[in-house]
Amino acid sequence: MAKSQEWETTDVLICGCGPTGAMLSGYLGKLGVRNIVLEKEPDITTDPRGIALDDDGIRFLQGLGLYEHVFTKMGSNMPKSEGNTGHVGVLAHKQPILEKYLRIAMKKAAECELRCSCELTSISEDKDWVYATYKDVSGTERKIRAKFLAAADGKTGYTRKMYLEPKGVELNWAEQTKYQETWVALNWHLHLPTPKTHPTFPLWDLGYTPEQVYDLFFPNDFRFLCNPVRPAVCGRFGRPEDRLWRFEFVIMPGEEEMEMAGQEKVREVVYPYLTHPGSRYGLKEDVEFPEDCIEVLRSRPFRFSARSCNKWALDRVILCGDAAHVFPPFGGQGITSGFRDAISLAWRLSIACSSNRQLDYEHLFKGWYLERKQQLDKSLASTVHNGDLVNGSSFMHLFIRNWGLWFLQLIPSWKHWLERGPRGEGPTQYIHSPGMPFIPEYNGGLYFPQTYCISLQKNAEVQFTDDVIFAEKRSHSRSWYS
C-alpha cells in the first residue's frame, strides 16, 4: 500500500450525505470523531422523497440540537399520532428542509467536513486502514484513508454494489415476505381556489371558505385508500402553509411504468378521489377540485421491496441506511431506520477510533448490526403487514378487514390502540447476543425513556430529560437503551 503521506487521513470516511450520512456525521462530530463526507450530488435535492419520521427520528434530531426547527421549518405532526419518547408519534416532514438542518448541525462541529460533487472510484483495505479514491468537483482524482468507511450511499451505491457484493455481502429478501412492487409517487403543491379566481366553483354559494374547501378535498390526516382494484395512499406533508400533498398508487402487472406516471393516467387514477358527489352538498352536479390549482412537483415510478443485507459490516467497511436495508412505503420507516443505524453506530465508531488497545472491531460492529436487525425485523414486519392489509383484493380479505376495523372502533381503548398503530406496542426490547452493550441479567436491553423535567430553580423552563442528561457531554452512552 502507498505511503501514508500520499493519502489524506481522517478517522471516518462517510459516503453519502442523505439523511443517514448527515445524521451519522453530526453525531460523530458531537463525539469528537473527525469525519469527511463525500456526496455525489452538488446540492440537496429539491424533490421531497421520504415524508414521514416517527418519534424516534424526532428524538434523534433533538439530540443534534435541532428540535426548535422540527415544527417551525421541517414539517407538522400527523393527527392522532402518539409516540413513546416525549414527542408526537409521526412528523410529516419536507425532506429537503430536514437535510438542510442536518447539514447545519454538521457545520457546527469542527470535526465534520462535507465535500459535494465527489464521486467514489475505488476502495481497498489493509489491517490498519481503508483507502478510497474519488473524483472531486473539478474531476481531479483524490486519495483519502480512514480508520473506517461508513457507506450511506443508498441501495444502488458504489460501496455495496462494487466493493462488498464481490466479497459475499448480499441484499436478501426480508424473512417475512418477498415483497416487491412498483408505485407511482406524486408530489403536489396545492393552491387555494378563491371566489375571485374561480367564481363559478359551486361551494362558494354554500358558504364554504377557501380553507374549508382545501380541508374537504385534502384532509389533514394520512390515509390508506383500500381500493381493491388499485391500492393507494395519500396525505399532507411539510408545514401546513407549504400545502404539499403526497399521493402514491400501485402499478398493476402489465402496465408500463412511465405511462402510468404520465399526466393522462394520473388524472384517470387520482382525480376520481378529488371529485365529490353533488349529493354530499345537496347539489345536482358533482364537485371537482380545480385542476389548475394543482402544481405537479413530481410524478415518477419507484420500485419498493423489503430487503436487508446478510452483513452490514465487513472488515473496516460498514453499510447503513438504504445501503443496508430497503423498506416498502407503508410504514414511514425508511429515514428513521437509517437514523437508528447512525445513532447506534456513531458511539461504536467513537470507541473503535479512540481505543488505545487492540480492539476487536469486527465483533463490535457485528453486535451493532445484530442489534439493529432485531428492531429492523420488527419494523419490516409491521410495514409489510400494513401493506397486506391495504392491498388485499379478495372478498374474504375485504370483508374481514372492513368489518374488523369497524368493530374495533366501537371500543374506545381498542380504537385508541388502532390509532397508535405499531408504535402502540411500545419500543423494541432487545434480546442479548454477543457484542451487545448491555447486561441481560439486570434487565438490560430496554429502551431508555424520555420525559419532561424542570429544575427546582424558580421560573425554570420545562426541558426534555435527554437534553439535561446529555447536555454538553461527549459520551459513548447515547444509544437510548440500557
In words, what does this structure look like?
The chain starts with 7 loop residues before the first strand and ends in a 13-residue tail after the last helix. The protein folds into 2 domains: 4-176 and 306-384, FAD/NAD(P)-binding domain, CATH 3.50.50; 180-304, D-Amino Acid Oxidase, Chain A, domain 2 (2-Layer Sandwich), CATH 3.30.9. The model has no long low-confidence stretch (mean pLDDT 88). Strands 1, 2, 6, 7, 8, 9, 19 and 20 form an 8-stranded mixed sheet that branches. A 5-stranded antiparallel sheet has the order 12-13-14-11-17. The protein has a 3-stranded antiparallel sheet with strand order 3-5-4. A hairpin with a 5-residue loop joins strand 8 and strand 9 (141-151). The chain has helices at residues 19-30, 55-63, 67-74, 95-107, 158-164, 210-217, 257-260, 263-270, 334-354, 361-391, 395-408, 412-420, 465-469, and strands at residues 8-15, 35-38, 52-54, 75-77, 90-93, 112-115, 119-125, 130-135, 141-151, 171-173, 180-190, 223-225, 232-237, 244-250, 275-276, 287-288, 294-305, 307-309, 313-314, 317-319, 325-326, 452-453, 463-464. The chain is an alpha+beta fold. It has 13 helices and 23 strands.
Beta fraction of the residues?
15-25%
Average pLDDT, all residues: 88
Total count of helical runs of at least 4 residues: 13
The CATH superfamily of the largest domain appears as FAD/NAD(P)-binding domain
Query: What is the end-to-end distance?
Result: 41 Å
DSSP strand count: 23
What is the level 1 CATH name of the largest domain? Answer: Alpha Beta
Structure class: alpha+beta
Principal-axis shape equals globular
CATH level 3 topology of the largest domain: FAD/NAD(P)-binding domain
Low-pLDDT residue spans:
none
Determine Rg (CA atoms, Å).
24 Å
Helix content: 25-40%
**Total count of domains:** 2
CATH architecture of the largest domain: 3-Layer(bba) Sandwich
Q: Give a quick account of the main beta sheet: strands, pairing sense, barrel closure.
A: 8 strands, mixed
